[in-house]
Design brief:
CATH superfamily of one domain: Efflux pump adaptor protein, beta barrel domain
Order of helices and strands: HEEEEEEHHEEEEEEEEEEEEEEE
Radius of gyration: 50 Å
Oligomer: single chain
Strand order of the largest sheet: 2-11-14-13-12-15
Largest sheet: 6 strands, antiparallel, barrel
Structural class: alpha+beta
Amino acid sequence: MNDKNTWKKYQRWLIGALLLAAAAALIYAVYRPRPLIVEVATVSTGTFEQTIVEDGRLRPKHRYVITAPTQAALLRPTLKVGDPVRAGDVVALLEPVAPQMIDARTRSVLQQRVGSAEAARRAAAAQVQRAQTALAQAALEAERSARLAQDNFISASARDQAVLARQAAQQALTAAQAEQGMADFSLAEARAALARAEPAATGQATGRWELKSPVDGQVLKLHQDSAVTVSAGQPLLEIGNTAALEAVIDVLSGEVRQIQPGAPVQLSLGSGAAPIAGQVTRIEPVAFTKVSALGIEEQRVYVIVSLEPVATDVQRLGDGFRVDARITVFEQASALLVPTAALVRDGEQWRVFVVEAGRARARTVQINDRNADVAWLKEGLREGETVLLYPGSMVTDGQPVRLRNG
């Protein structure tokens, strides 16, 4: 009897122990630390670059603006934007401006003025003929007086008077001819004023000007695309060579001091196009104000970048094309690099999480410099070590981890 009770008691203890073990196993399975799925990267050796990334635009190195030399009527242009032109080709035609409209009263006044000028010219011509007759008579008298004075039939004073009379007649003829010239000019002026009110006898334009291209290139812009009256100095069209382009990059004035002439530049056009290499040729010394997308006023400076030759069958570039510029201001070869996404700020220092035996181990590192992509390590890591990317607040020292790619 006692053995039977002892066995039952033993069974109850055994069942209780098994239940406790199962509960403990369940609790451990539920609450044990599970490995975090993480992304990792490898510490590598490469070239560290400190760059400035800004956007800009392309423009021709030389742009030529064709302007009107005087007020004239521009004929309708036949060229379109993008048309090629050669040096010496006619790119614009100008004609004299049509005269202003004149009413009937003003036309009548001008006609009467022409009649008055014609009458004055006839009077001046008559005076010339009169002076010529007087001069001929004075010349005969002077010759006769000279012969008589040789034979002592008249005195020397009478001979001198005849000579002076001939000179006076000559001066009178000169004055009459000048008066006739003034009358001719007055008549021509009156007729010119009247001609402004009457159309030309022939329908052909006179005094047409041909404006020619100074260089080989393409039409970049048409300021006037139809027939219109233009004033002196008014731009008509722009010509440039799109095969010789440069990039204009606007950079913050606080960052432009890091850029030196000759710095390498990578220009990207987007849409999968291959980047274009270039270098900084000039930094303009004048800043300008630009409002950012956030509404903040910024002081910016233009940086001019020359492009390396690009095959036309690979790239079709043009004036005003947008580019993304990556300007290299510092470069260090054989640098130990770690992704910037692996860095975690720890007070005034930096630390990373290194994957060792399936666990994340915190390690303090020192860096020389960093950019948006990688950091240049000074000490704390070795090449080939694996570090966590984007470690969050759940990652602690010794935390089990599992790589996303297995």
